[in-house]
Amino acid sequence: MNNRVHQGHFARKRFGQNFLHDDYIIESIVAAIQPKNGQALVEIGPGLAALTLPVARQVDHLTVIEIDRDLAARLATHPKLGDKLTIIQQDAMTINFDELAKQAGQPLRIFGNLPYNISTPLMFHLFSYYDAIADMHFMLQKEVVNRLVAAPNSKAYGRLSVMAQYYCQIIPVLEVPPTAFKPAPKVDSAVVRLAPHAMIPNPVKDIKVLGHITTQAFNQRRKTIRNSLGQLFTAEQFDSLNIDANLRAENLSVAQYCALANAYIPA
Ligand code: SAM
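A: This is the predicted complex of the input protein with S-adenosylmethionine.
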């Protein structure tokens, strides 16, 4: 059978469709999520319901966001899901998660086997709603999970690590081989749990400034920050923050990036 056809659906590459079909992996993901009745569960990209079905077995209601019209239609008439689902046929990147949380009357528990082509921008979109979110469980490329959890002084540590750790506590849950999906992706995958901090440990005045500084620093990660951030900060500013200007982007902690963001004075 064509490797792109699963349960009679032709996988659409543009929507990053790789469907889970390994029961052990599916059970492990649902066990990690621990869905409970009464929680505001939201799945991004339910697809053919590989995760939706076992979650729906444990709860009375969940909301799903699916961009693919055909898949959304299949879910709407799914015999086992019935009226348990609220289906939003929309691009998750355009969803206002504050609104969803307001409607639910509680912070959201979001999960999904994310389309890899948009997983990073989608996470940034979600981070901007961090106080409407209780936690998130996502299947991602393993390399992305490595970057999310990376500590300073490692190759994987970069802009994504700083921005994600600014908002969330991040815990890798499970590694998943390509054979667990149909069609099989070319890369290894992993499931990660992201829980927004109850209190942001190092709050910045303007998140855009933190974004700008980390872009500047990591785009030139081999340079010292005296060079890469020299347009933004004086030697005295580095000194007053006790940050050695001879360090490189990967040597600075999240707290140090936040301190820089708060010391930044726009020209
Ligand atoms: N959850 C299913 C599974 O595990 O087998 C499908 C996972 S598949 C990797 C990604 C799913 O996200 C697909 O159903 C795809 O149509 C959907 N999708 C892709 N882009 C999306 C977007 N921007 N917003 C919402 N859903 C999207």
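The chain has two domains: 5-196, 207-263. The mean pLDDT is 96.
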